[in-house]
């Protein structure tokens, strides 16, 4: 009879242990969901682009000469482009409704230039940097 009581007691302890572990896992899942929601509230801009040689004069190894930085402070998007080329380029940035926020020729983008989009609440933005030798097209989205 003692053995049966010991086995019954041991089974009860195991059941309580598994129940406690299950509740802890649920709490971890809830914590992870809250963390993901916090991350989503602070989405960062992300830029993706493709490049094509306009007249095949640029070797493929030199095609990725575009450098950029993005900064979003909530209402304003700051896009800094720097192109390792002495060519005059035209920069266009539009939103998904085809409203142009930037549409200007830039004589020299080798030292870089910052473009400001205000208000920055119409993601995604589409940009194009073109010259006689090269064409960059891409999107700026929130990640």
Spans of at least 5 consecutive residues with low confidence = 54-64
Helix content: 25-40%
Radius of gyration from the alpha-carbon trace, in angstroms: 28 Å
Q: For the largest beta sheet, what order do the strands appear in spatially?
A: 1-8-7-4-5
Largest sheet: 5 strands, antiparallel
Query: What is the CA-CA span between the terminal residues?
Result: 64 Å
How much is the average pLDDT? 76
The coarse silhouette is rod-shaped
Could you spell the SSE succession in H and E letters? HEEEEEEEE
Q: How many β-strand runs?
A: 8
The secondary structure category is alpha+beta
Number of helices: 1
Strand content: 35-45%
Account of the protein in words:
With 143 residues, the chain is of the alpha+beta class. It has 1 helix and 8 strands. A 5-stranded antiparallel beta sheet has the order 1-8-7-4-5, with no helix packed on it. Strands 2-3-6 form a 3-stranded antiparallel beta sheet, with no helix packed on it. About 8% of the residues have low confidence.
Task: Please sum up the structure shown.
The protein is α+β, with helices and mostly antiparallel strands and 143 residues long.
Note the topology.
Elements: H1 2-41, E1 45-53, E2 66-72, E3 77-83, E4 89-95, E5 100-106, E6 113-117, E7 125-130, E8 134-142
Antiparallel strand pairs: 1-8, 2-3, 3-6, 4-5, 4-7, 7-8
Keywords:
alpha+beta, 1 helix, 3-stranded antiparallel beta sheet, 5-stranded antiparallel beta sheet, 143 residues
């Amino acid at each position: 009879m003692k053995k049966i009581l010991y086995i019954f007691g041991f089974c009860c302890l195991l059941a309580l242990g598994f129940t406690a572990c299950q509740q802890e896992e649920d709490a971890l899942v809830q914590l992870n969901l809250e963390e993901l929601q916090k991350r989503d509230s602070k989405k960062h801009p992300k830029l993706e682009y493709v490049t094509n040689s306009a007249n095949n004069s640029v070797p493929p190894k030199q095609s990725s000469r575009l450098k950029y930085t993005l900064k979003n402070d909530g209402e304003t998007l700051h896009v800094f482009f720097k192109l390792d080329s002495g060519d005059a380029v035209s920069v266009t940035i539009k939103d998904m409704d085809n409203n142009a926020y930037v549409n200007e020729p830039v004589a020299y983008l080798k030292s870089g230039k910052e473009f400001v989009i205000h208000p920055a609440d119409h993601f995604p933005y589409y940009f194009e940097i073109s010259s006689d030798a090269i064409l960059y097209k891409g999107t700026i989205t929130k990640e």
